[in-house]
Amino acid sequence: MKTRLTLKRLRKHKKLLFVVGLLLGMIYYFSLPEQLFDDPYATVVNDRNGALLSARIAHDGQWRFPPLDSLPQKYITALLTFEDQRFYQHPGVDLLAMGRAIQQNITSGRVVSGGSTLTMQIVRLHRKGKKRTVWEKMLEMILATRLELRYSKHELLKLYAAHAPFGGNTVGLNAAAWRYFERSPQTLSWAEAALLAVLPNQPAMLYPGKSIRPLKAKRDRLLERLHQLGHLSATDLSLALAEPVPEKPEELPQWSAHFTDFLVKRGYSGRQIKSGIDMHVQKSVVGVLKAHHQLLKTDGINNAAALVLDVRQNKVLAYAGNVEGAGREHQEFVDVIQAPRSTGSLLKPLLYASLLSEGQILPKTLVPDVPVFYGDFAPQNFTKTYDGAVHADMAIARSLNVPAVEMLKTYGYPKFYQKLKDLGMTTLTQPAGHYGLSLILGGSEGTLWDLANIYAGMARTLSHFNTLGHASNHQAFAGLEASPAGNNRATSGSDKIRTESPHLSAASIWFTFQAMLEVYRPAEDAAWKMYSSSHKIAWKTGTSFGYRDGWAIGITPEYVVAVWVGNADGEGRPGLTGIKAAAPIMFDIFDRLPETTWFRMPVAEMTLAAIDRQSGHLASPYSAQVDTVWIPKVGLRTSASPYNRLVHLNKAQSHQVNAGCVPTDQLITKPWFVLPPKQAFYFKMKNPTYADLPPFWPGCGTNLTALKSMEMIYPEQNASLYLPVEQDGEVGKVIFEATHQSRLARVHWHLNGTYLGSTQSEHVMALQPENGRHRLVLVDDSGNEIIRTFEVLRKGE
Q1: Distance (Å, whole) CA 554 – CA 309
Q2: What pLDDT, on a 0 to 100 scale, did the predictor assign at position 153?
Q3: Pick from 612, 636, 638, 639: nearest CA to 626
Q4: Most buried residue, 76, 352, 434, 463, by CB count within 10 Å?
């Protein structure tokens, strides 16, 4: 009976012991949280070679860098020699070290050694601020063994190095190496490694800036011990002992402060990021901006920004969001690279490329350059002059406004609006109609970041065509590529944003960049300066309305350099133009970059075609001068030249005739280049060789009605006019102007049925109509007429 009771009790005790053991095991297993440390990290940005560019302190005010992937061997050796020589042998608790510490404490009559292993110290760092009691020590020992089961020895060393205190608000080996020695932990000397090994032992009492002599003595004792163990030679020891201890923490470098802020806003806070920036290039760009700022600020221009992109690697090579030294009063803190600003003329090449890509024009198609009025919008060229007609590529090279508006009218501003968004322009927040035709002249805002990336995407498309044999839709942003979730390190690369809309063809980009190679300004532009360079650079400048923004962007197969100059508060300054203020900075930056190459012609997307030399259209049967040149294949769908026609002349070639009034054997037929009257009026001012059509021989003008011989220059049909007020306060007159193909023609003017008079050669008349709607009729001697209706709203406005 007793035996049975005893067995029952044993079974009960076994069950109880099992339950207790299971419970203790579960407590032991779950005694540590899944994530040991949830401390915030600083944001750290390194250049492509690992150099520290800039950093932002962690949210809790500590300089705590993200954990290192690997620790330098010198530091590991010094740390284990000082703190835990049997680290690789014990399971988290070193009983020998613990016994020795107890004996030392009893002998000394006070606590002189804790006997804690590195693993126990990690637990103590995790438990933050717990009192150092016997119970706490025992708990640390238990948790240390659990920690050893979860992490490898190498991982434990990394945890300690990342979270150990190094004095003041410096936490972790990575931050300490940069703050005390201004270098990466991987490059530490023996003396530096030894100092960082002893610092966490008494971080509140001994650290650079406080108690230098005791700190040096402590470091030197460790160096002697390392020498005794054979880690340092006698020479290494003497050199290490001679190294001074830093007197205070150094300020961390801020070579890319705006870029770091940009990364923080993009969600990269608390990470260590290896960017594509090159420290040497970054310093050069910062230096160029500072040098030019000294001159610019004398003209009241206080801010500048520059961005350099590595086209082939799709990375940021240099990022200077504002000029150093502008001062807080001039908003030096503003990152202008990300600030929306009026684009000026920077979108013109994109429009030209779009038209070429879709076969709507050829590279040298003539585009009208005459005064035009679209309601209240009357674009003017920078020089306030007109060419009548200009080849499309030269309109881009000379940045002419009126031809650009005409090209946008041809392409359609809603379509171009969508094209810009597809290419990556993120600032078009209003509907297309809000911008209208002014979109091409800076009527919209853009950022230096977007625009530089768009041009870099074009360069990559062209380069990839030459590499792959076809056009690649490779217009990604030079942004960031985050590493896997949970990793606090990231790499600056591509953010994987790709355009999915039809890309610009390689051929269209080639011709656009060729036009941008020829950038120049006419002599009357006082701001023009011809820049010489031994390398080919496609470049474009832009100036916003009111001289508030000056832009310059240059492109090669290797780099895009984008520059903005102005005032961050939007104040305009006379003479603040892209060509004068921004272009010199851009070229100075290119001069500091490695040698560049040039793009190869994408022949597979091109074809040879017969082109009318004068009009730039496909040659017609009546073209007098024909060139065989390369054009985009899609350009074959464009029309033949509309400006070339056959004319019949008398033998003296002084008059036009026809078979109805002159015998056919006396007719001379020849091709003639004929522009519309309004275009011809301005064209022949710049082109003296342009020949007007001869007048018709009297009685031979029956076919004249088929020819548009007259055109109104001002006003446009259904225009609304205001009569000006002169200086004396009197209401002035409006100048009405027309043009005729024949300079000898006489034109008769009628207003509301009343004859006003006639003009010859120059068809200009000053009128002062009453308020209300009016009808103006112009008739030449051959009976051709122009009818214009207009409205005078109010006199004196």
Answers
A1: 11
A2: 93
A3: 612
A4: 352
By the 10 Å C-beta count (0-12 exposed, 13-18 middle, 19+ buried), 736 is classed as buried
DSSP 109: T
Residue 482, number of CB atoms within 10 A of its CB? 18
User: For the segment 541-563, what is each residue's pLDDT rounded down to a tens digit?
Assistant: 999 988 999 999 999 999 999 99
Confidence of residue 329 (pLDDT cuts 50, 70, 90): confident
Burial state string for 291-314 with b = 16 or more CB within 10 A and e = fewer than 16: ebbeebbeeebbbbbbbbbbbeeb
The torsion region of residue 439 among left (phi > 0), alpha (psi -120 to 50) and beta comes to alpha
Alpha-carbon torsion angle 654, 660, 664, 666, nearest 10: -30
CB 378 within 8 A of CB 371: yes
Question: Strand 549-555 relative to strand 272-274: parallel, antiparallel, unpaired?
Answer: unpaired
468-519 pLDDT per residue, tens:
554 444 444 555 443 333 345 555 543 333 332 347 999 999 999 999 987 6
Q: Which of 38, 33, 75, 32 is nearest to 58 (CA)?
A: 38
pLDDT digits (tens, 9 = 90+) for 334-377: 999 999 999 999 999 999 999 999 999 999 999 999 988 877 78
State the residue for tokens 């532009």: 525
Residue with tokens 């585009």: 367
* Residue 325 reports pLDDT greater than 80: no
User: SS3 for 540?
Assistant: strand
Give CA–CA dist 566/343, Å, rounded.
13
Distance in angstroms (rounded) separating the CA atoms of residues 101 and 116:
9
Tell me if 786 sits within 8 A of 710, measured CB to CB: yes
Relative to beta strand 754-760, strand 644-649 is unpaired
Integer CA distances (angstroms), 247 to 210, 211, 212, 504, in order: 8, 9, 7, 59
707 φ, ψ (degrees, to nearest 5): -110, 130
487: which residues sit within 8 A by CB, 6+ positions away? none
What residues contact residue 3 under an 8 Å CB cut-off, 6+ apart? Answer: none
Bridge partners (DSSP) of residue 751 are 754, 776
| pLDDT at site 575 | 81
* Highest mean pLDDT out of 97-111, 365-379, 616-630: 616-630
Check whether the bond before 371 is cis (ω within 30° of 0). Answer: no
Tokens for 150?
A: 């979860």
Do 150 and 122 meet the contact criterion of CB atoms below 8 Å apart? no
Q: Which two tokens stand for residue 432?
A: 């297309």
What is the number of alpha carbons within 13 Å of residue 114 lying toward its C-beta? 19
pLDDT at residue 641 tops 50: yes
**Which residue's structure tokens are 């059509």?**
693
pTM: 0.83
Nearest 10 degrees: Cα torsion 576, 581, 582, 587: 160
Q: In this model, does residue 584 exceed pLDDT 90?
A: yes
114 band by pLDDT with thresholds 50, 70 and 90: low
DSSP strand pairing (734-740 vs 710-714): antiparallel
How many angstroms separate the CA atoms of 751 and 767, rounded? Answer: 10
Secondary structure percentages of the chain, helix, strand, coil, to 5:
40, 20, 40
Phi, psi for residue 47 in degrees, rounded to 5: -80, 180
Distance between CA 722 and CA 60 in Å, rounded? 65
Residue 116 near residue 90, CB atoms below 8 Å: no
The pLDDT tens digits for 41-64 are: 999 999 999 899 999 999 999 999
Of the listed ranges 18-27, 293-302, 548-557, 775-784, the least confidently predicted one is 18-27
- Whose CA is closest to 263, among 420, 481, 41? 481
Q: How far is CA 567 from the centre of its chain?
A: 18
Distances (CA, A) of 269 to 64, 162, 449, 742: 13, 17, 20, 72
For the packed helices 212-228 and 73-83, what is the interaxial angle rounded to 10 degrees? Answer: 100
